[in-house]
Design brief:
The structure is a single chain. This protein is α+β, with helices and mostly antiparallel strands. It contains three helices and ten strands. It has two domains: 95 residues, Ribosome hibernation promotion factor-like (Double Stranded RNA Binding Domain, 2-Layer Sandwich), CATH 3.30.160.100; 53 residues, SHC Adaptor Protein.
Length: 188
């Protein structure tokens, strides 16, 4: 079964050649890890990048039963950025498989991140404090699995997860000295 691939382009004309290349390579990711169900690829051209080698950005996010992996790469050409991102993703998949993780999901498709953009009306008012909202399904995991997911996703600052051991939502964060901290909220 081929991976479902969604491609989005920002400030780039998505030609048939680019789209076919992306769909072909991203569609084969389930060969490396059968739990992968879908891949979301975002190709962006940043006109204001300081370095010409950072103008084209490829973000690849894969979701499957019990996993979310993400990578981002920059290059002077969009396909070079995408190919490098796929190579990095393959290394992440190898790391993921090497940890002997098995799907923790409940058999349902992986979460879909829904982004709601808050738009302003032409009223001249200031923008709202919350400019973007994300909704996602939290998978139960223990603290060590949360650390590994945080590393695999490339989240440098924090990671929100449902702690299967305490049955509570926790926030894992990286401290300045490189260690990790855990926030365990309690309703007051």
């Amino acid at each position: 079964m081929a991976t479902k691939v969604e491609v989005q382009a920002r400030n780039i004309r998505l030609t048939d050649r680019i789209k076919e290349h992306v769909e072909k390579k991203a569609g084969k990711l389930d060969h490396y890890l059968p739990a992968i169900e879908e891949a979301y690829v975002e190709l962006t051209h940043l006109k204001a990048a300081r370095n010409a080698n950072d103008r084209n950005v490829a973000q690849v996010t894969v979701r499957g039963k019990g996993l979310i992996l993400r990578t981002e790469e920059r290059a002077d050409e969009v396909l070079v950025a995408f190919d490098t991102a796929i190579d990095n993703l393959e290394r992440q998949i190898d790391r993921y498989k090497g940890k002997h993780y098995h799907g923790r999901g409940d058999g349902r498709p992986a979460s879909e991140v829904v982004e709601e953009q808050v738009t302003l009306e032409d009223t001249g008012e200031l923008s709202p404090v919350i400019a973007k909202r994300k909704h996602f399904r939290i998978l139960p995991m223990n603290e060590l699995e949360a650390v590994e997911q945080m590393k695999l996703l490339g989240h440098d600052n924090f990671f929100v997860f449902y702690n299967a051991e305490t049955s509570k939502v926790n926030v894992l964060y990286r401290r300045r000295n490189g260690s990790y901290g855990l926030i365990e909220p309690e309703v007051g």
